[in-house]
Hints:
The protein has two helices and 15 strands. By secondary structure, it is mostly beta strands. Strands 1-4-7-9-11-13-15 form a seven-stranded parallel beta sheet, with no helix packed on it. A six-stranded parallel beta sheet has the order 2-5-8-10-12-14, with no helix packed on it. The N and C termini lie far apart (31 Å).
Amino acid sequence: xxxxxxxxxxxxxxxxxxxxxxxxxxxxxxxxxxxxxDFSFLSGWGLALYRSSDNLIARNRCDYCVRGYSEGVxxxxxxxxxxxxxxxxxxxxxxxxxxxxxxxxxxxxAGRDLVDGQAAAxxxxxxxxxxxxxxxxxxxxxxxxxxxxxxxxxxNRVLDNLAVGCRQHGLWGGYS
Length: 176
């Protein structure tokens, strides 16, 4: 629905996107404030950050962001997520959001650039993953896969979140 690229200090509030594929994508954005939005009932993700850091994501509703689910038949969610942090999205605050009944409630992934060694092959020194994020008091319940999935990243703080009734795990931390 919405995509912002190379922005600094923007405020996104009061937006609503429903019954499409994706809600809001921030690409290479810094110090954005995203609050009081409704990105629910989508087939991809509600909120996504790609190489975006130092942002505040708070009090948003991103419920039922899921695809590929059929009760008793197929339930993996195909990496759909209410909130996605991808490839070097670091130092963000993700707080007080409702992100229920999605593929993953929060999917945080360092990205193929780091995992496959492409950054190191280019000579980048210590490229890092999605690091040092604060994930605080969100509701990630009833995910068809994981309430919270963090992979190949470090120093993230996951505090006082709710992740009940998730199909696989409340928290899945792979190489994090």
